[in-house]
## 1
Amino acid sequence: MRLFVGIPLAAAVVDELTRVTQRLRAKDDGLRWSSPESWHITLQFLGNTGRDQYECALARLREIHLPAAPIQLGAMGFFDRAGIFFAGVKVSPELVSLERHVVAATTLCGFTPETRPYHPHITLARSKGKASEPALRKLKKSLVVQFGFTPFIAAEFLLYESKPTPTGSHYEVRDRIALARNLGG
């Protein structure tokens, strides 16, 4: 199974992002738009995982006891080389702490930490290759106004399984790990 650890979005943020993407989306733009059901903030991509490694990761992740993390979306942007349009997530000390604890926990089970700096975001659309690069450039030019999003408190993080389908990956929740309800301890 292909696994990753992430934070689900608050319903209000999903509604706001849905309205924004509906406004930005163009018919036959050649981009593969992510469905609202797939939106999340990745803490760590684990990849292909066997049963023993899965059980180890689950046990270690359940040992994480941190305060709930405030989440605020930031500016929308692009990973040009990857052909991705995303909504950024502002980095907070609580979010960085959660990401570091997740990576430390899964490293004990043999997962390899990412070498690039943590850049939390929500993937909204992907190019389908060279043919859709003009659509991505057009989207970039049309993004003259940034949008404001409702802040929320991440009360949990999830262990997801990614199942590939012809229209993109489908994500299934394998487990939910609660964070402490009160901020600051």
## 2
Amino acid sequence: MLYNESMDKIRDRINEFNRGVPLFLLKVKYKRMSESAFRFFRGTCHLFYEDLGKNDSFPSSPASWITGDLHLENFGSYKGDNGLVYFDVNDFNEAILAPVTWEIARMTTSIFVAFDDLQIRPRETEDMVSLFLKTYASVLAAGKPRYIEAKIARGIVKDFLERVGERTLGELLDGRVSRKGKELRLCIDGERHLKLESELRDKLRDFIDDWTRNNHPKYRCLDIAFRIAGTGSVGVKRYVFLLKHLEKEKNYLMIDMKQATPSSLEKFAPVKQPRWLSEGERMVCVQQYMQNVCPALLSFVSFDREPFLIKKLQPSEDRVNFRLLKKRDKEISQVIKEMAALAASAHLRAAARKGAATPDELIAFGNSGSWQNEILAFSREYTKQVKAYHYEFIRE
């Protein structure tokens, strides 16, 4: 199932999608995409759905709110607005109303691609994909969403959540800030943080001063920088703010503000989309639909007449590192099962919201087993496409 007619134009397709991205950021993104087929897969969500839209034999399914870019590294831990640490789906940039099989296929393909990069044997990989599909279907069929927090987690995820929950503020700031005189400042390292032009910096300071006045009046802004994070999202406008408490010594807060851009899936979705006030509202609302508890301070805002998503900074390291689990089959199985349960739970929570299928329709889909083998076969074959695309990309 190789889309050979597209192979000679792969760089053109990617360049067209990234048109308008500043050259220095485009170089960062392309460098990251060159690192591995999985990193390439993460950075080219649009290619996946462009190709999926050409597949007339893809299994049908109910419409659901989906993250749009579900893969192994879009699950992670975060502190919720209730102060507890959760493990859940955590990226909603591409969120859209679409067939639920789109989400499942994106996820299962990510397992094939990532495990191939890790040189995990094909038979073991197929077993993990089958486990994901069976667990997803069984949780969907049960019709009851689940959630994972430290008290009920098991295995590596439990250890992971406990470690994140015990992390001190100093550990969060380490490597991100440095002391200049009596105050802390963000480290401008050219990799994670970039210096802002003075005019933009002044606008952002005015914005965050208004935001803190209305949301956290006891904090003041110490520093602002441009933030580079992820792979697919490299190129969007993204800023990090370092705030300090006015009364409590050594009490700091880091805020992440990311431009809310249209979902790359929208032009391919066969389902009519509801109207939103902004792309920021879309992202926040779908995240509220799908997550059990949302991250602290999550909201959508407008800056310089553009929509943005704002929340408390969540370190990108708070994800499961499958390289460390490579030879620990039982722990990999447990993580895959939990990811499947969380994906199904997210779809159940979003049921019947703004055009999404009802819980009963999702339950019936979970009880039907015919689609699982079709998704597995599609993902297995499409992995070959991803590897071919990546080869052409790094060859040029």
## 3
Amino acid sequence: MNYVPARAALDAMLAAIADAARSPVEDRPRAVAEAIGAHVANPLLLHGVATPCCAERYVRYRLHEDPEGGWAVAALVWRPGQMSPVHAHRSWCSVGVHRGILAESYYAPDATLPMPNGVHLRRPGDITYGPADPRLIHRLANLGCETAISIHAYGLPFDRFRTDLNLILAD
């Protein structure tokens, strides 16, 4: 029997993210997303990590935080039908899909409300990323029939995700 220590896959991904997070800021979202992408489809990634879903909304679970407060990594758990609000980011972001399929919808900035202009399905192993930019508007949604889990890294401490991360443009 092969023994896989709990968290071994997660620790490998977090080490790769820490290395990538030292990239110049203009390269950081891509570098961190590629680090996530190299590990995110591993079925053992969250082995031993509790990630229960919530009936009312998607849930974020802290996986790691940079000791200096420059970035943090979270697992987001999405039940079928759950979605983020339409938003842009005040921080760089990097995302990879671990389980399930998420639809990432894109929006064009508009004077009144953002206008939808495309959608991309994100499957296990897929990544997406972007800098802090109020014109890069999107929404993630689980439109499938099973729970989805995605891994997100953002350029700010975890305790500021709820207040300082998203520029919400529509629900």
## 4
Amino acid sequence: MVGGAPWVARKEAIPNKTGTNPVPREDITMKHTMLGMALAALLAVPAFATDYMIMAPAAPGGGWDSTARTMQEVMQAEGVAGNVQVQNVPGAGGTVGLAQFVSTAAGDPGQLIVGGYVMVGAILTNASPVSLADVTPIARLTGEAVAIAVPAGSPLQTIGDLVAAMQADPGAVSWAGGSAGGVDHITVGLLAKAAGIDPTKINYVAFSGGGEALAAILGNQVTAGISGVSEFLPQVQAGSMRILAVSTAEKWAGTDAPTLVESGYDVIVQNWRMVAAAPGLSAEQKATVTADIDKMVNSAGWKSALDTKGWANTYLSGADFDAQLAREITATTAILTDIGLVK
């Protein structure tokens, strides 16, 4: 109420340029309001920095494939990117995919590749013409225990039983694992050495994908299998496999299996996985990719995925990761030389 009378909006006419057909002021105000609302709605739409193609340099079903597809799911769900695709290029411990990535993705900030400990070893054992020095490392993402497992019906009940069989005849005990020279192969070699067995005598059968290795284990085509814990847990929970030991210093969440150290074998190994970008990126492009990966790993979706899959958050980026990667390459070279896989 103003002056005792109801307040009524009044249309104030604003003359047009000709002085005829005046435009009501409230119409102009309404147009300004609608324009402001439209602008606000436009700004509210997420601005995606880029779309991504992530190469998993292995067959479907393994750790790299799972990592790439988890990144795809989380980056899209969390609004880090608008469209993320995954490409599988298996072969030679990731070095086939790495070579293709280096030759085709140069200068493209929308191209990513996953890798890790396995690739470091495969580059050395395959004398790969390309290496991680030929890409743009972005970050270490996850860590995971390596598990040694057998089919549920196996007569081998403990890791001691498996080692005893190896000591009796190393060649008679066959192992299904990832690529030659990778973390699985390294772990078997270190276990053999810790048990007084010549690591060059082990019967290791390399597979390019976790799905293929799993089929060989469940089909009793090999004595035992070795891979990341997360790749075996569904079968363990279903009752078709048993984990005999894990490779980390302490027991791993999700399994009550003993560690190799607890079992009397001085072997501690933790697998790790990373993401790298294309070669030839500018500092600004690398910073943009790193910022997107940082958003992903700090999102609720990524943290939930880590819990679900049993992966440890070992995120490390920038100069710290570059330094750690250099140390890992040096250490892996020494281990592979020690167990006879690199001369």
